[in-house]
Amino acid sequence: MSGTTAPPPGSAPVEVTLDAGVAVITLNRPAKRNALTRSMRRDLAALLRHHGDGHRARGIVVTGRGDAFSAGLDLREAARAPLDLPAEMELFHDITRAALAAEVPVVAALNGVAVGGAGEMALSFDARIATPGAALVWPENATGLTVSNAASLFLPRLAGAARARELILGSARVSASAALGLGLLDAVTEPEDLVPAARRLIHRWTPPGSATAAHLRLLRPDADAVERAMARETEAVRRVQAAGVARAGIEAVLARRR
């Protein structure tokens, strides 16, 4: 797939191809802007574990098909009774666990907007590359929801505490150029070079005989700190659900879409 941004489209909502030793995982639900259903989140975590063991691939790229990386949580699915946002969040958290346990680099190739949990999971990856038209959006605060994927740890770590506070409380939409300046992205490149650029980065980080797996373990946050952050996020979403704030926010978003 050299020179392309994604493998040929298929029917699976999460697809994977191997190219030049790199596993490219593609979120393939473009008609729904790659909104992440429960099964998609399970599949993504499973694929990260399968290809992250160091035996099958030297790195993993996660990208999306269509004009969005992912709209984040599939709110229509989540809103079906009974609402269980802690369980929804746990499926996101398992993606972060799988990415952080990988023996190989995990790179997000943001082909478009990454909303909420989708952008938050990308923060837990080892690098993020985006197209000029991509953006990161954290709408949770304004819609009565809360952040996930240890974003409460990763966002201050990458952008600083003050900027993280503004991004989350201000329900920010951050353009690719602004995200690059904030340290949330590692590079911005043209769409046709997005996946190839991510693949080149993985090749550069994994030369023959390298100690990349050992250094990834050293450079990633401590697993206990990540688990503490995710536990606090789960408790936060439990509180806003119990208060009715989350249900009202989801219904308002769905009403605007209708």
TrEMBL record:
Family: Belongs to the enoyl-CoA hydratase/isomerase family.
Any one GO molecular-function label of the UniProt entry: catalytic activity
SUPFAM superfamilies registered for this protein in UniProt: ClpP/crotonase (SSF52096)
Domain of life: Bacteria
InterPro entries: ClpP/crotonase-like_dom_sf, Enoyl-CoA_hydra/iso
CDD domains documented for this protein: crotonase-like
Protein's name in the database: Enoyl-CoA hydratase
A Pfam match: ECH_1
UniProt organism field: Streptomyces cyaneogriseus subsp. noncyanogenus
